[in-house]
Structures are given as structure tokens and as C-alpha cells.
Predict the structure of Glycosyltransferase, putative.
Amino acid sequence: MRVLFVTNGYPTEDHPEYCVFNKEQVSSIEKRGVEVDVIFINARDYGRSEYVKAIKIIKDKSKNADLIHCFHGLSYLITLLSVGKKVPLVVSFLNAIENEYIEFPKPVSQICSVITKMLVKKNIGMIFKDRVPIWAKTNSLAKNIPNGVNIEQFFPLKRSEAIQALNLDSSKRYVLFVSSKDKFRRQKRYDMFTLVLKNLKADQAFSDVEELCLVNETRDRVPLYFNSASVHLLTSDFEGSPNSVKESMACNTPVVSTNVGNVKEMFQGGEAGCEFVNVGDVDALTESLKNTLGSSERIDLLSVLKNNDLDSVSSAQAVCQLYSEVLSNFATSNKFLSTP
């Protein structure tokens, strides 16, 4: 099977963490014997004219592909302009559809969301990182497949060793904030993170707590951050299936999180390893952080992760199964249309 990936998010030398989960999913699928090719529409560095340039590139490369897998709704729309429905298509949405185009002004974002819903028909494979939304449930090719974590790369280390490797202060307890693109990315709410820590440190019992920010770090050092942290605090306004939470679980680091995306579902069987708080509730986040930092109970979150099929091997297997279903559906549809 030959799969062409079209994405507007992929790591670069200057931004090694930028949408690295896309690269890692491509790699895990390639390990299953799939031939892969990647078109990266790098509008971040070179502007939105890259989308226009990509139309011909996609059209040319699609001739050698059995299937095209688009990461992000905008990549899907550009691919439709390139090849229509002449090639079997799969699209992975990063967020709920109303937040998929959040980088655009609100009217444009809303229009793109409506158009996407209209153009995703029953013969298109759809991957949602969170639960499948009501509007897509009539499509048997719509699946909930969160990105998986490479547990050969993310696994528990001694906290003291990780702290030493990052040249941190061993007398401190660290609360981890993660935003691969930009610390001040609106969705991630670094402002809320700092406010929660300010409230926490007002209590003398937590005066030794410090923030630890993971932004644009090389991939080989990322597990050290999760293993150095006493807890990962996620303050996002919305998410699909936050990879930082899964990476935290793989390192057995507890999580305090706003109740976004599929965070609750990820902890089935290990609920004691995470506390969930309503979006925007600073006081509740502070109290949950106090509870987690003050608790001596530790859950084997790595086992919870594996039991819930959130590792990269399980995720790649599910994606490849969807590829087979999409190809079969496409062949059947074409046969039906060509029958006199």
C-alpha cells in the first residue's frame, strides 16, 4: 500500500517540536510496511501562498498513491481542490470541527467548518482524536483514533536523574507546562497556568514549587521534562486528544487538567492519576494541584496507557485498518458506478 500524507504541520530544523506527532504517526505507519510520501505545506514559515503551490504538487504525487491521508481540515480542503475524489481519502481532524480552523478570523473559521462538513461524505475516512461527533456518526468510516505514544521513547526514569540531566534544582518540585508551538498560544492558556501557580505558591507548603516550560525542545530531551515534573498541568480551553497528557502517562507523571477533549477517557482504569476541572476554573485547578502534589499515591499510568491502546503501535494498527476499509469502500463504489 502506498499512502501520500498531506499536512500543514510537520517538524523543521528550527521548530523540532512543531506537530511532531504527525511525523511520528507517519513513522509508525511506515513500520507496518506501508510505503509513505509526505507533502508538507509549510505556510508557517513561507506564508499561505504555499497552499496554492501545493495544489499541483498533490495532483502530481497522487498518481503514485493508493490513498491520501490529510492531517488537518485545511489540508483536506486543498487536497479536494487538487484531486477531487479520484483517490481514496482519509482526513485526521486535530480538534472538534468548530475549533479546527481556530487560526483564522472567526467568520472564516466558521465558513471553513461548514464547508468541511458538507464535503466530507460517506466514502471519506475520518479520524477524530476525541469522540466521533454527532454530525459524522452516519459515516461508518468515521473513527475515534487518538495519536499514540512511542513507549520505547517515553517511559519512567528516576526523577532525580532527569532533573540532573536538565540542570534543574533538585530541591524544587516542578509543574510542567507544554506547548510545542508557542508558550503564549491562545488555546493553551499560559496566562491561566501562571495564575494557578501564583495562587499555589501563596501557600507556604508549596513555596518550593516552580514552573517548567516545554516549548520547541528537541525530541530526545522531551522525556526528561516529563520525568522531571512532579505533575503536568494542562490549562487548555479546548483540545482533541492532547499528546502531552499521553506522554505524561507514559512517564508515570500525574496530570491535573481542564476537562477537554478525551482526557477523561484516556484515564479509564487509572482515574487516581489525574484530576479534571472545568475550563477556566482557576481555584479548582489550584486545589487539584495541591491535592496531587500533596499525595504520596502513585498510579502505574504507563500500564493504563497501554491498556487503553494509546501507544503508537496500537494507534498505527487502527489507522491501517481504516485504510483497508476506505480502499474496500472506494473499490465497491467505483464498481457500482461503472456497472451498466
